[in-house]
Amino acid sequence: MDVVISPMPHTAAERAGARVAEAIAANPLLVLGVATGSSPLGVYAHVRERIERHGLDVSGITCFALDEYVGLPEDHPQSYHQVIRQTVTEPWGLRADQVHVPAGTTGDPRQAALDYERDIREAGGVGLQLVGIGGNGHIGFNEPGSSLGSRTRIKTLHPRTREDNARFFGGDMDAVPIHCITQGIATILDAGHVLMIASGAGKADAVAKMVEGPVSSACPASALQLHPHTEVFIDDAAAAGLLHRDYYDFAVANADSVPGA
C-alpha cells in the first residue's frame, strides 16, 4: 500500500480528490466505484471543483456504488440511491444512466446482487474504486468474518455498523436496516486501482490493522494488502495507530523524487 498522511482531513480529501480527477482526465470513459458515508464527501467536492472551474469532462464515465440497504425505498433520504444522487450524480452533472446502485427493493435481493455483479463485469470492471473503512474494519458492507473471496451478495449488518449509521437515521438504531447488498471483497479487489480515504481518531485502530496487521477476515479491509495498486489517504488522527508512520511520512515527502512512488 502507498500510505499518504496529511495533517488535516480536508487535505487528505483534496489529495484523494486530485487522484480521482487525474484518473478521469486520463481516461474519460473510466468506470469509477463510488462509496457513501462521510469520508468521501471531501473527495467528491474536490472533483466537483475540477468540473466547474477546470472543465473536467465526466460525460463518459460510469459509476457503480459499493452497496445499498435492503428494503429501504429508493426515495428514502438515507437510501444510497438518494445519497449518491445528492453527493455525486447531481453535483457532478451526471446523467442518471451513468450511475448504478444495487437494487434493494426488487423483492429478490439475491438475484439483484447477482445482476449487479454481472453489470460491473459487462461494463469492463471498475478502473478506480473509492472506499472508506468502518471502525470495525469493514469495506463496503463486508463486515468482520466476510470471506476474502466474496462477490456481490446480501449481508447482515454488524450491530456496530448499525449503531454507527444511526446518526443518519435521527439517532434511531432501530430505523437502520438489518440487511444490505454489497460488493464483495473479491469484487473490490478486481478493481484496477483502489483508493482508500479515512479520517479521525475513531478510524485509527482499523487503519492500523488494515495497513500493518495480518490479512484476515477479522479486518476485511486488510485484504487490500493483496491489491497491487492501493493508495490510502488519511489524516494525522487516523494515522495515530501506525507503528511505522515516520516511514510513511518520509515516503510521502519524497514521493516526487522516487521513481514509481
From TrEMBL:
UniProt xrefs under PROSITE patterns: GLC_GALNAC_ISOMERASE
Keyword set includes Disulfide bond: no
Example GO molecular function: glucosamine-6-phosphate deaminase activity
Gene Ontology terms: cellular component: cytoplasm
GO biological-process terms attached to the record: carbohydrate metabolic process; glucosamine catabolic process; N-acetylglucosamine catabolic process; N-acetylneuraminate catabolic process
Keywords noted in UniProt: Carbohydrate metabolism, Hydrolase
Alphabetized Gene3D superfamilies for the sequence: 3.40.50.1360
Glucosamine/galactosamine-6-phosphate isomerase domain location: 10-225
NCBIfam families associated with the record: PRK00443.1-4 (NF001684)
Name by which UniProt lists this protein: Glucosamine-6-phosphate deaminase
Organism: Galactobacter caseinivorans
